[in-house]
Amino acid sequence: MHSDFPIGVAIDINELYSNSLYKSIAIKQFNSVTPENIFKAEYLHPEPAFFDWTDADSLTNFCIANNKRLHGHTLIWHQQLPQWILNFQGNSSDWEQLIKTHIQTIVLHFKGKVTGWDVVNEAFNEDGTLRNTIWRQKIGAGYIEKAFIYAHEADPNVLLFYNDYNLESNPNKRNSVIGFLNNLRNRGIKIDGIGIQMHINILSTEATQVASALQSISNNDYQIHLSELDISVNPLGKDITPSQSLFTKQANLLGEIVLQYKQIPARYQYGITFWGISDKTSWIIDYFNREDYPLLYDDNYLPKPAYCKLKETL
Ligand code: XIL
After folding, report:
1. Can you tell me which atom of ligand 1 is nearest the CA of 118?
2. Full DSSP string of 170-237
3. Which residue in 38, 59, 247, 272 is a FRET match for 89, CA 20 to 30 A apart?
4. How far apart are CA 293 and CA 75, in angstroms?
5. Which residues are catalytic?
């Protein structure tokens, strides 16, 4: 697929190992890769003094061999944590040491191979306040800036992102995130970009909302990664029949978003990453336990109208 900015995909390592059709689409259609799960703490750091690089290194080698940019997801999040972190006992400086070792061991391991990291993921509530995650409880609100500082120390060249959802639809949350990050920047902390996850849907997402989000974030001088794009056609979890009209709506919404993204200055376009290849293995179906068809390819790995729209709009 030709485009002026990277088009990425979240890779499920088990599909990559076992499904040759999946692998060939990943190679042919995308030029950036985000690990869907295997760079999360529970996979990379399963024991206090043990990091498991096996799958992560094989995905890294896949990216090198096939000339794909690798985007690291994610260093500090409150989900998919290993049991030992959930059970960790210590004072705030012990917790700080924990995140320092965690972040720096991982960032150093992938130095020169990962282009950008989601340093902190989903740290804000919908009302714009800070989410009371385990990190905030143990370290205080300063955990966010510390995470960025530690990551920067380990690799001064890697791009550092804050990543979250609903930033396109909830201006309150978005403004809080921007204000918070601007404050860190004013104190000399390097933050390169913002990931807008973009788990959106055909019922409530408006392209105009997305346009304002792109504008306000780029006006504040952050690169923008549409980092986990999928477009639900059944956000309410009803009994539905997948129809041409649903897929056309999905395709049109995607087309409008891509057009908006093309309008921001090139230096802010880190890229657009889809959160999977085929509807069949989208996280939406398991996670929300509903019928849905949010991606570019159908259950048989055939391209949907959204794929054609993407191709013609890029
Ligand atoms: C999801 C994965 O897709 C699932 O396989 C996993 O079970 C749960 O996490 N926001 C994020 C992603 O930042 O890491 C999540 O990925 C989806 C929501």
Report:
1. 13
2. -HHHHHHHHHHHHHHHHTT----EEEE--EEETTT--HHHHHHHHHHHHHTT-EEEEEEEEEES-TT-
3. 38
4. 29
5. 122, 228
* Ligand 1 site, residue 36, Cβ cutoff 6 A: yes
Mutate to test the pocket of ligand 1, among 226, 283, 289, 292 (most ligand atoms within 8 A of CB): 283
Name the 3-class secondary structure at 52.
Answer: coil
Judged by DSSP in three states, 283 sits in helix
How many angstroms is it from 36 CA to the middle of ligand 1? 7
Residue nearest to atom 9 of ligand 1 (CA): 37
Q: What is the full per-residue pLDDT of the chain (314 aa) written as tens digits?
A: 789 999 999 999 999 999 999 999 999 999 999 999 999 999 999 999 999 999 999 999 999 999 999 999 999 999 999 999 999 999 999 999 999 999 999 999 999 999 999 999 999 999 999 999 999 999 999 999 999 999 999 999 999 999 999 999 999 999 999 999 999 999 999 999 999 999 999 999 999 999 999 999 999 999 999 999 999 999 999 999 999 999 999 999 999 999 999 999 999 999 999 999 999 999 999 999 999 999 999 999 999 999 999 999 99
Q: Which atom of ligand 1 is nearest to the CA of 10?
A: 3
Decide: 163 and 122 in contact? Cβ < 8 Å: yes
